Amino acid sequence: MSEPTHCTRRDALAVLALAGCSLRVAPAAADESFYPPVLPGEPLAFPRDHGAHPAFRTEWWYLTGWLLRLDGAQRGQPLGVQVTFFRSRTRHDAANPSRFAPTQLLLAHAALALPERGELMHSQRAARAGFGLASASTHDTALTIDGWSLQRDPTDRYRARIEERRFALELDAEARLPPVPQGDAGFSRKGPLQRQASRYYSRPQLRTAGAIRIDGARMAVEGVAWLDHEWSSEILDAQAEGWDWTGLNLDDGSALVAFRIRRRDGGVAWSYARRIAAAGAASSGVATAGSDPAVRFVPLRHWNSPHSGARYPVAMRLELGARSITIEPLFDDQELDARASTGTIYWEGAVRAFEAGREIGRGYLELTGYAGALRL
Which DSSP state fits 48? Predict the structure, then answer.
């Protein structure tokens, strides 16, 4: 079961506007001139790049993690947490002097994965920027929508605050590693064309603590989280169907990110993986294109959603050259129906990672395009 979506008329209007302005697979020439491209050779600059980039078409801050309950009847039991904020620039002229011109839309998802119930509690928000409804700072991570917030403070600690009827989150996630640029110094290719790219960095191994509330019961939690921040004007190739992505915090202090962009014909448009070493040591990565990439996601088991009818490969074998890692879900039913905000249905769930029969870490797996070709 999911948390009911709290949608107002304002939210509905925001979603209708988003349907005409957000990231599309094959933008028209007018869109190519309206939204700036992501270009190689532009290094990330902090703290500025922790903030929003409103000129680009779309952007997201994606916080996921594994938490252990420290008290209550489920003490010592794990749960998954996900908080994502999205920003979308519409095609309204930024020079329009009207305060009512919806030039920027903000959206958010929040979810708790509860294995003892086999339930994904989730909710979502959508609002135009301004009027005290929603905001995204261009100076640092500081995002708000209707009382939900995600902020970074000067000590490099992220604070997530979500308040819903059935659940609430108060989490502080402390960075132990500097931002990790993905791809080529933060220029992350997603397809065969150079313009199919994003600016992308990760914050793995975030030491996380705080409290959650579930159906009125409040409990302390602690664990490890991961934050991705990404912005772009065009990502997917015209033949792309969706992507598989995983971010894994490993027990030795290192981390691993991998993704593939799937084509509609069953091939792979692009794939990428990077190992992020512990304590700032040198990382390693591989990025390949073509139908036989070095990075392979091999489905081991599928789950058929009773909600959408989609069939998801919820258990995977991730092959990275000679290395083979098995990814298993915390539980199967972690499908997120976000049609009331970003207009998508996808699987996004807490997973365990195994290598040579031994558990080596935990993280999240995201599977998009299985309930229909992805349209953000």
Answer: G
